Amino acid sequence: MADCMDKERVDRRSNRNLQRKKEKEREKDLGAMEASVHDFFLRSLLQTLAPHQSVFQGNSIL
């Protein structure tokens, strides 16, 4: 009887650990996607602004 209860506890603990690991991986993937989107929008903005002259320096922004 005690062995059965111990096995259930171990199973629950390993399931929780596996779930936490999956959540951390999802968070890491989400962070990478957010960084990628941020980078894409920054590059797009810089490309849009590139042809314009800087008001202060008279030089191209890029």
Walk me through what this model shows.
- Residues 1-30 are annotated as: Disordered.
- With 62 residues, this protein is mostly helical.
- Helix content is 77%, strand content 0%.
- The radius of gyration is 25 Å and the shape is rod-shaped.
Main attributes of the structure:
62 residues; mainly alpha; 1 helix; rod-shaped
Q: Write down the overall geometry.
A: rod-shaped
Structural class: mainly alpha
Rg over CA atoms? 25 Å
In whole angstroms, the N-to-C terminal distance is 72 Å
Number of helices: 1
Order of helices and strands: H
As residue ranges, the low-confidence spans are: none
Number of strands: 0
Portion in helices:
over 70%
Sheet with the most strands, sense and barrel status: none
Would you tell me the overall average pLDDT? Answer: 83
Q: Provide the β-strand percentage band.
A: under 5%
Topology:
Blueprint: H1 2-49
Give a quick rundown of the structure.
Residues 1-30 are annotated as: Disordered. By secondary structure, the protein is an all-alpha fold.
